Amino acid sequence: MNYQDWTNVINEREQQLEMSRAFPALMRKVYVWMTMALVITGVTAYSVANSPALLNAIYGNRILFWVLAIAELGIVFYTSARIEKLSLTTATMLFILFSVINGATMAYIFLAYTATSITKTFLITAGTFAAMAVIGSTTKKDLTKMGGILFMALIGLIIAGIVNIFTKSTMFDLIISGIGVLIFTGLTAWDAQKIKQWLSMAPDAGEQTQKIALMGALSLYLDFINMFIYLLRFFGSSRD
C-alpha cells in the first residue's frame, strides 16, 4: 500500500469515527428540540385558555384566528424551503415561533375537554408515539413506500376534513379521526427511520447537519400534535 492509499484509509476511518460520535448527539437533539416545542405549545395553550383577553382576541376575531392559522402554514413551508440558506439560530427561532402560534390556536382544547381526559390522551399519544419511533428507528424494513402511501392518504384526509366542515357529520368526523390516527401513527415510524438514515450519514455535527436534525424534530412534532388531536376526539371528555 502506497502513502496515498494509506492516507485515504486513515482519512476514511477518521470520518467514520467522527460520524459515529456525531450520530448519537444529533439524534438526542432531534428529540430534545421536539420535546421543547411540545412544552412551549402546551404552556402557551394553557396560558391562552386561562386569559379571557387572549381568548377573546383570538377566538372572538375570526380574522386574527385565520391569520395565525395561515402564519403557521407559512412558517412550516418557508422553513422547509429555505432551511439550507437559513442560519441555525433563525431556523430555531422560527420553530419556537411556530410552537407558540400553534399553542395559541390549540387553546380551545382546555375549554372543550376536561383536564383529566386531556392528560389521559396525552399519555396515550406519548406511548404510541414512543413505540412507533422505536419501531421506525430499529426496523430493518425499508418504509419508503409506506411513506409515499401515507402522504397520499394525508392529502385525502385533508380534503375529507374540508368537506366535513360543510357537511358537519359526526359519524364522518369519527371516521376521519380514526384514519388520521392511523396515518400519523405510520408517519411517526416513517419519519423516525428517515431521520435516522439522514443523520447516520452526517460527516459531523456542524450547523448544516444540525439544521437537518431540527427539521426532523419539526416533522416528529407535527406527527405528535396531529396524533394527539385525533385521539382526543375519541378519548376526550367534553366539559358540557
Count of DSSP E strands? Answer: 0
Structural class: mainly alpha
Order of helices and strands: HHHHHHHHH
Q: Portion of residues in helices? A: over 70%
Given the C-alpha coordinates, what overall shape results?
A: globular
* Estimated share of beta-strand residues: under 5%
Round the mean pLDDT to the nearest integer and report it: 85
Number of helices: 9
- End-to-end Cα distance, whole Å, is 79 Å
* Rg over CA atoms: 21 Å
Q: Main sheet, how many strands, which sense, barrel?
A: none
Uncertain residue ranges: 1-17
How would you describe what is shown here?
The chain is 86% helix and 0% strand. The chain is built from 9 helices and no strands. With 240 residues, it is mainly α. Helix 1 (3-49) packs antiparallel against helix 8 (170-200) and helix 1 (3-49) packs parallel to helix 9.
